[in-house]
Amino acid sequence: LHKHHHMMAPQSDAVASDVSELLTTLARTCEDGNHWCFKSELLKCCGLKDEDLHSIVKRWWGPQEPWLDMLTTEVALSLGLQLDLSSELGSNWPGAVSQWLDESFAAASQLPNAAPPSRAVLVQRTKPLATKVLCKVRGVEAPAEAPKPLKPVMTRTAITRRSFRPSLAKIQTVDCETCHREYSHKLGKCPTCFPPERRSSATNADCKTQEENRQAVLQEWRNIESAPVSDKEWSTIQGYLHVAGGTGGVGLIQRPKGIVAVKRCLPEELFAQRLAQALGMRSVDMRVLEYFSKEGDALRSWCRSASMVVREDSMAMRKVLKHDFLCIMEFVTGVGMMGMEAHNFLNKVRETPAAQTDKDHSQSLWYELGKLMGFDMLVNNFDRLPLAWTNEGNLGNVMLGSSVGLVMGIDQAANAITHPDGLATYLRRVQRAVRESLDGAGPAFNSVQEAIFNNTGIQLTPDELRELREGVHHFVKAAVEPKRLESALRMVSEEVKQCFGEGLSAPKVVESISFMISKVAEAMKSELEASVNA
To answer: How far apart are the first and last CA of the chain?
Structure first.
């Protein structure tokens, strides 16, 4: 479950001298940009002892190692949120950490003979530790723990009928004409003759019906084309539907010319999408809509008056539309690279003879997927296939068999690595992956094969693996051409800064991403040249 070696932290009260030192240590000790391990360096900097975390873990939870890593990560997450660790790890780091915690908790909970606590217990037990660290670093006194309140002791003499008479006198009662029993007039009807409905079963049935309606509409909408993203006329909205997932989910809006998708927009996402287009990668078309613009006001106004497919979608759509910046995106249907549907699709592609079609065969599919993996390495988009990362990946962000491309990446972002040590580690992993794309299978591509098998049940053949490697190699070779990449970065940077202005720290984000991508491209080019010379 965890490959890291766990060392006992030395019993030291040493602590970071200031906030910047603590931030630097948090960034340096962060593993893969999404978690921290139970190691001495971080504990010593925080002034924590190993007993502080060991005492939380109970023997019935199962093996201690994964729980110690999760507790350490919870402490670091709390510290990072309060000290603005985004300046070191980028704005998307809290989501990546939360995802790692969820996956690690689920994995640890499934170990044999384990009786784990709830996730809330980990947060509750680590919050005082984070507060203690912050107080030490800031040189303030830690707040004293509030004593538990004592329960009042009630004696028989303290409870008298007289104490209840004033409240009873205020209640107006009515006699039931059927059973002749008294009941409060506020109830409206006799609770004996008309017992309250069992809400739990009714609510469950209602939720089931709503989800069935949602899936039926989604299936119907999959046959509808996407409306033009450039269309700014919202008075023709025919209906909308909210689909859960990601940060706040996605709103699907039906218009006469088709369907568009709406979701929260971040500079990192627009940067990745525009750079993908500039480098010849097919990606979902999108544009940015600002909250305070006239078009933003019109969109919210017409959505309020439009019909909804599911009753609860009204509140969910309001939450989507409240963000400062929105993405108006192309509506693309296809098969997510997860589950039985993906398994059947890939098998069908395998069975299609290459002579019957000019591009829809398994080799071109894996080649296109390899190009997508190469792009992900360039921008550090770790939430897809685990080529240069140690996570399990998220193959739901790969769309297969859409009308606009055999393989397409969705929900991607460029994630800057600002800490020098973290960037150096990432560059070594990138070079290893590039080297494997030339020399053959290795640890990086083994992780990709394992992720594909775990998510689709498809075991790659040697030819499919070769196509995957060739796709990575050809993208890297084309992308690292200096003039082409510099021109693309300059054009994309200007557009992102123009769209967001000073919002969401866009200028700083763009600068950090551009610097990282330049370093990644240099590392890729160096590895390619080394292989040629060898």
So the answer is: 37
8 A C-beta contact, residue 311 and residue 355: no
CA distance 241 to 218: 8
The H or E element spanning position 253 is strand 250-255
Residue 4 has pLDDT above 90, yes or no: no
Write down the mean pLDDT value for the chain: 83
Helix (H), strand (E) at residue 495? helix 482-500
Positions of E strands within 48-106: none
Nearest to 7 by CA among 33, 35, 34, 44: 44
Residue 382 confidence (pLDDT) above 50: yes
pLDDT at residue 65 tops 80: yes
Closest CA to 271 of 90, 491, 474, 89: 491
CB 488 within 8 A of CB 279: yes
pLDDT value, residue 108: 85
The pair phi, psi for residue 214, each rounded to 5°, is -60, -50
Nearest to 38 by CA among 47, 46, 50: 50
Placement of tokens 């039926």 in the chain = 216
Give DSSP secondary structure letters for 115-153: ----HHHHHHHHHHHHHHHHHHHHT-PPPPPPPPPPPPP
User: Tokens at residue 350, please?
Assistant: 């395998």
CB within 8 Å of 177: residues ≥ 6 apart? none
Q: Is the pTM of this model over 0.70?
A: no
Q: What is the pLDDT of residue 81?
A: 85
